[in-house]
Structure prediction request, 525 residues.
Amino acid sequence: MSNGYDAPIEVERVSKWYGSVVAVNDTTFQVRPGVTGLLGPNGAGKTTLLGMMCGLIAPSLGSVRVLGQAVRDNPALYRRVGVMREHDALYPFMTGREFVRMAARLQGLNDVEEAAERAISAANLLPAQDRPTGTYSRGMRQRIRMAAAVVHDPDVLLLDEPLNGTDPRQRVEFADYIGRLAAQGKTVLISSHILEEVEALADRILLVVSGKLAAAGNYHAIREQLDQRPFHVRIVASRLREMASALVGLDAVDSVSLDDKGIEVLTRDVAHLQREAPRLARDIGVRLYRIEPLDDSLESVFSYVVQQ
Amino acid sequence: MVGVALLPFLIVLPIMLTGNNEDGGFIGLFGAVVIRLTLPLIVLVLATSAFGNELEDRTLSLLTTRPVPRIAIVSAKLAATVVVAAPVAVVPAVVMVWLDPAATGGTIAIAAAGAAVCVLTYSSIFTWAGLITQRALAFAVVYVFIWEGLVTSFLEGLRYVSVRGYTFAILRGLDEEGFASLGEEVIELRAGLVGAAVATALFFAASVYRLRRMDVP
Prediction:
C-alpha cells in the first residue's frame, strides 16, 4: 500500500497472558479493507484480541499496528478508528441522541449535530433518539452504540459481537450497512461466535481457537472444509435394532452404533440423513421419535478445523 | 452524602439553641468534625467513584477509545470531583467557623482556603486510588481513619505525609491565633503548602500514567 503500511490492521506475533492463563498465543495476521470476521467459540480469545487491536489491552508480547501506527497509548489514532466493544456499556440517563452527540464532541467534530443525525439515521433509530437509552431494548442499545462508533466516519471499524440482541430484520439492515462501508473501502472487523452471523457479513474470516489463529482466509473455502467433516447424529426410534440395520444401507451413513439412548450415526451428509431417515422408518414400520445432532456446537466445528 | 455534610450542623445546633455558644469553641469543632471526619468522607466517596464506577460498569472505554488525551480525562474527572465536593465540604466548614464569636473575616477566609486545599489534595489521591484498585473506598477509609487518624498521632514525623497534617499546617500557619483551638501539633506552613501541592501533582501524574498503561475492561 502507498500509505506506508501493508494492511490497515497488522497483528504481529502477539501473545497475552493473565497470570498463568494464556488468552492469546503467538498470533499473527493482517486485516485488509473489506469485512473480516473474527470467529471463535466463547473464551477463544476474540475479545482480548479485539481489545489489543483497539489499544485498550496491552499485549504481553508482540505488536499491534493500526493504519501503520502503534495503537497503544495513541489517542489521536481514534480519529480514524471506530470501536464498539462487547459489553453493553451505555449511560442509561442519556437519550440516544445525547449519547451520539457526546461521542461526536469527544471526536472533536465541527458539526456535531449533523454527524449525530447522520449516524442515528444510519442506525435507523431516529424515532427513538430522544428516549433515555435506559429504556431501549437490547437491539436498540446495540444500534445506538453502533451509531456512536461510526459518528466520525472512521476508516477502520472494530466491532465486538455487534449483532447480540438484534432481531432478524435488524441483522439484514446491519449487513447492508456494513456492506456499504466495505464498498467505500473501509476496513471492518467483526467478532462473533456464531458461524451463520459471520457468513452473512464477512467475505474473509480469522478463526481463533484457544487463543491461537486456527485458520484464516476466504469464508466459503473454510465453510466448505467444515461441511465435509463427519457429524455425529442420534436417532431415537421405537425399534432400534431394525432401524439401525436399515440405516447402514444409506450412502450418507459412515457408521452406526447402538447404546441405551438410541442409535448414534456418523455421517458426512446430515441433510441427506434427515431426509432419508423418516422415509426409511416409515418403510420398515418403525416409529421415529427424534433426530438430533450430537456435535453441532461451534466448539466441535472449530476443533475439527484445528485437527485438520 | 448530604447527611454527612449536615453532620457539623447537627452537632452545633444544640449548642446554638441552648445559647451556650458565647465561649466559642466552634473552630475547635471545625477541626475535629469537618477536617477530620466529614470533609474526607465526602471526598473519598466522590473521588473513588470518579473512575471506579466507570471501571465497574465498563463505560470507561467509551472515553478511552476517543481522541482525548489521557491528561484531559483525568483533569476532567478531578475537576468534576472538586466542583461537586467543594461546596458540600467547604460550606459547612465556613459556616462552622463563622458561628464562632472569635472568628474574624480573615479566619473565615483561611478556613475556606484550607478546606479547599484539603478537598483538592484528597481528591487527587482518591481519584488515583479509584484507578488502581476496585477496593478504593476501603483504601481511602484506611488512609483517613487509620493512617491519618491513628498512626500520625503517634509518630509526629508522619504528619509530613498526611493531608490532614498539611491542612492544619496551612490553617495555623496563616492564622495561628484564630486556629489555636485546633488542638494539634502542626508542621510548618511551608511544609504544609509544599506537601499539599506535591501530593496533588504527584497523584494526578500517577493517575494519568495509570490510565495510559492500564488494560481498560
User: Anything to note?
Assistant: DSSP finds ten helices and 14 strands in chain A. Chain A touches chain B through 24 residues (CB under 8 Å). The longest strand of chain A covers residues 21-31. The longest helix of chain A spans residues 168-183.
